[in-house]
Structures
1.
Amino acid sequence: MADPESYQASYDLLAIAERLERVWDGVTAAELHLVAYVACLLAIYRKRPASDWGYAFIRSPWGAPFSPDLEASCNALRVGGFLDARTDVLTTTPSGRDFLAFLSGGSQHGWRTQFLDGACSSALAVPAGAMRNAVQEEPSLRRSSVHRQPRPLLTAGDTVALYEQFGVLAEVVGTDVSDLMVPSVVWLTYLSEAKRLEEQRLALAETGSLESRHRVD
Amino acid sequence: MIDTNVMRRLADGMFVPIVHRELGDAGAAALRDVLSFLPRLYSVLSPEQITGTLYVLRFLTPQQASPVLSGCSPVEVPLDRLPRGVAQTTVIEVLDKEVARVWENAAIDVALASTIAVVYRYRGDEGFVVRDRYCAIPNPAVEHLSVFARPTFSSLLEALQDYRARLVRTSTCHLFRMAWETEQRVFFASGPEHHMRRSLCQFLYSRLRDVNVLPEQRVDETHPVDLKVTWSFTLSEALIEIKWLGKSRNGTSIVEYWDARAREGAKQLVDYLDWYRTTNPNADTKGYLVVVDGRRRSLSATTTSVSQADGMYDEHREIEYNPRYEELRSDFAPPLRLFAEPKWTADAGAGS
């Protein structure tokens, strides 16, 4: 068996799928990348550098977080019979769950569990669609959205803005809160709410301009 | 710019921080179990079938049910045998190992239960009761009665058909309702397309897995298509053009569009598809023409209400397209007409 240290992406994929597949009747590849990205953000919230996470993310051409390492691991897990792909959703197989148990038993992955738990719980607590919407508003993805080409996320420049948001978040929810579901849900809802308020403002401005155009006509 | 006030308001008012604050880590763990349970419950129990009150509980420590519940004896059921309807008061206790305990017609001491369990309540609206304080769950997509019901669609066509039946038909979507001049739904308001676009955009975003829905995307040098839907991990894309039929009124100024408008929309969409293909040769693009039909018979400039006969006159009157692009090209889906009913009045005579 290979060194489990090299299985961080596989561990995350199996752990996320195993937590969400029964609730959602399987997990799509995009959902896996999204939840893994939120887990990585929660590690940053706990002051771990992004480079500790073990694999990197880019902003994909379709505007969502995407990790080439996760994609490669996902393909390997499917080929190896650890993940089952039916139509467009993935589920863990008995071998996949055994492999997850094996990886969970080692010391190399235990530290990730709280972040994966926090991200998966957020996916359950935040309404469908809102989490995708919210993540698109986080500073790194937002910053990269002006570029047409895929761009690495969570670079040093991005994390400054992120730490600023997380500083306020920690102050608001309390630094002693151990369960990461709490800051995660508050932060994601905040991003979604901030976007909604901005859209509402733009819609009102547009309606106002339509009405004044009508008056001129 | 971070709006600390908004963040603080959320932290003070949302059910997740409240449960954690009031019930501690054990509460958060129990909440997680309830959150995992609710989508599974709503996959067999439609919220529309809840006419009474539903409680879902997860005790912080096991075996505490008896002090808070009385009435008939509970039944332990596997998750595929959960109730299909709630007429009076039903309590479901979330247990381990894929089973739940169900009390029909139960009497529950909510004040006490909410100190030793995470208590979810559905009674028209939904929320959590924490130490006898009700905390409502905001629902951004009000057309679906519960945020935990995830009726997601695998195909865009299925989603559009659901949108037609449940949101547009009787204007249940609050964004779509803004497209009307009044609640009678006789005339559209001025510039209704803006509200229609927002309504459909939000619906598709929340109901299709793995999509991005972008409003007003430019496809040629001058024209934006109303919505562009892109799917993650594939080259599939959909261009959606929305047209409306009927009359829009702004004071004394009336704009009206009839069947020809839909045919123009079809031609316009074909032009967009052709142009788009030249600039995006690798994309697997399909065009969808969505026609919101608010046609009414015998409207005058002063009409404020319509009879059923006039309001529903065009309900089944399909639009004749010539050519029928869906028969000529595979990238053009059959146009979808979304008839939007008025709120008719019994005493409104024709043309009143």
2.
Amino acid sequence: MDHLVAKYGLSSDAPDLVTTVPALGKLKKIRPSYIKRAESAQVTGRRFARKEILPRVLEIDKKCTRDPRYFDWNLWRKANDEKLTVALIPQEMGGLGYTALGATILCEEMTSACMGITANILFNNFGLLSALVEFRTGIVLRIIKDMVEAQRRGEPLFWAWAITEPSAGTDVEDERAMATMRPSTYAEKINGGYKINGTKCFITNGSLAHYVIATIPLDRSNPLESMATFLVPTSSEGFSVGKVERKCGQKASQTAELIFEDVYIPEENLWEPPGRGLRHTREILSTTRGFIGASALGVARGALERCIGFASQKKIGNHFLIDEDWVQYAIADMIKDIKTVRAACYNFAISVDTYHVMGLFESLPVKTVLKMVPERVLLSEFVQILGGLSLVESLAGKIKNKMVSDETVEHFVKEGSAVKVAGTDLAMDVSSRVLDIVGLEGMSHRYGMEKCFRDAKVTQIYEGSNQACRLDIFHQEIGSPQ
Amino acid sequence: MDVHEKYREIIDVCRKFAAKEIGAAALAYDLEPDSHGLKELWTKSCEVGISGLLIPGKFGGSGQSALCSALVLNVLASECAGMAALFAEHFVACHTLIRAGGKESERCLAAIANFAIDEPTIATVVFPSDEEEEPVRIVEREGKLFLSGRTTLTGNASLAQYYSVFVKERDNKITCILIKGETPGVSVGEEANLPGLKVNSFAPVTFKEVGIGESFLVTERGSGRELMESAQNLFFGFVAAIAMGTAQRAYEKAASYARERYQFGTTIINHPEIQRMLGTMRMKLGVGRVAYMDVFNGGERDAGLTKAYCTEAALEIAVDAIQIHGGYGYMHEYGVEKIMRDCKVLQLLGERNSSLIIESIARELR
């Protein structure tokens, strides 16, 4: 029976990008370098997932069950050595130069082995995404420089994105909801900066972060119009990490409560002025929801690939489990769903590369500069100072705002939400059906499939619950009710 | 008479016991099963008469019906499905002895009902499976009978003192044997570490030339099929009752959270989408409750289908209950994600639901 079982994903390193999504093969003929980078992302992600994550994943899950603060630094360092922690930064500046398509594929490959571990390694790129939202050249260049230098030193530089509060989840992500929100965190204007008080909860990597990007209102009674975005160094006095949550799954990824007690934030760390905080959140969501969809797709794939492996070796009487008629129908059905969602995820990523902020890296002026100017100059103090000049910042800001208008952001929130709901519902569906096939024994921890099921559930909740995502899809596609 | 009225007293006692003793320990045992604490809990349950529920009064039990047992399991499951599953396996093992009768069975039942305070007596049941790598078989050597083989995952494995084992023999004939846990040759393998029902112990049990002289045949050789089928149906009915009990709790938690949680300018229970989710849960609970009780009211033939329906409905309810709780639902301390994990294992307990559904038709063609 073994010869009948296809080898791909978790069972083989061989790349299959252009064969599984043939549109990419066609695109490769027109834009070879774009697709080649995506193929390289698949090879890198797949190899890392198989070689480094897979052998450790169950042990890490067990350790984190005992201690939610356990973190496998060895594995993180291996990922850092391969530059996965700076995957989105252009190659010319020391990263891997993965586009949105490359990052999507990298997410999918790595989450097929473990989504929690992937979050430790890849969600770090949130810092860069946030900086790109600002697109103040000074900030972008500084963050890229900091991330690349930390990567080279082999030291972690974690970013966390703090949106959710104990009393507000969807309320911090939706315009109509935010108007009625009851914030638990707030900022006050004081001399030279701001003072922050309150609590954020369920913050991914919050307990590891060096910097927290937090949306916080200045007027608690008017959150929508006073919501701002702050960069909070976690070394700030008054900042502390509360409990690290004991979760159902994705245990390798730490989810923490962040406590702000009179935290002083200097004026220059105000990234978005009051009233622009929601816009910042929406722009990040407009890309990250797509990545979550792709990551959840990876969870589904990982579950199915493990199931196929198990079912083709599990004897039932005189035949194998995979020989059973109903099992074959179920597997075929799941393959169908995975193929469909996969195409949707890649399509979304390509449109982010084409029409959204990632397209800036592909634009002629940026491309030319990256090609012509040597890396040591790109990362030099001189360029940092140049980028910080208000003239440069305002010019770059204009170009970026033209490219990423409010309409663009909302369009991508909608498209990203669709991919997110499709991917995360798929993850839940497939990881559950897979257990129905493999039975009680196959559900044992050592086969890894029950972990996929536990990991999958939260994807329907974070980055905007699937209910909030559906509202976004309706409102942006059909229109908002009066 | 309404079944609830008929069993009100015993159900109330069990509900109080469950809320006080099981509810308090459920989350801790979910993280770290503690067999010592569990035995204490079992002893306490004996005091309120749960472990001997099915055993006739003349042997020291309460002599209650299977329906009453199912209602009790339903109530226990609302605090912890794993605890209820532990009793379900025990009840089914008792059922095999009660139904088979005979002196040895009766002596055994009396021992279960009249437990010693420091060492409670837990039983479990083993059904034959095509998935056994070393099939459990009865071998005859020099006029003596021995049991050999290794079971697939058995519930209550490391906790049980009595194993009621159904063995497949030649021509698909079935024999039921009662094996005492301390008999030489009986050993419990590695725990499976399932995602749910963690308080229970699921592991393979190995029988290495276990002399049947020390244990005994519950049925005559080859004549146990009917007993096995009734035991299986009973088990499926119990699992359905447990699934509905734990799902009921998920629904209650979600409904009460929805009344407290403020979002979009109001408590979320005012959102029609949340009402739709809660209403769907209630719909499934209502149908499932009628369905599982029907198993004990002449519907045992389709007990497997009922188990499939109820466990699937329960999982859907639990998944939506987490969704309503948002991030909180995913955190261990709120006890909702545990219900989802428990329901997932309930789905696979006994037999795969798809196999049960296919078999319900296939058996009519044979």
